[in-house]
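Render this sequence as a predicted structure.
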Amino acid sequence: PNSDVNSSRNITLFTVATFTSGIIMFKSRQLAVKQHEKLPGDYTVTVDRSG
């Protein structure tokens, strides 16, 4: 019985991890698109701040 519980828990964790990584990839892709849409002036400002 314990092994069954562990396997189902692992499947749930795996599903959540896959779902979460998919959301992160989707959001980071949206962020990249937004950065590309920025004006060159805005981009240099953000680079200066990060540096």
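Summary. The helical segments are 2-37, 40-50. The chain has a mean pLDDT of 79.
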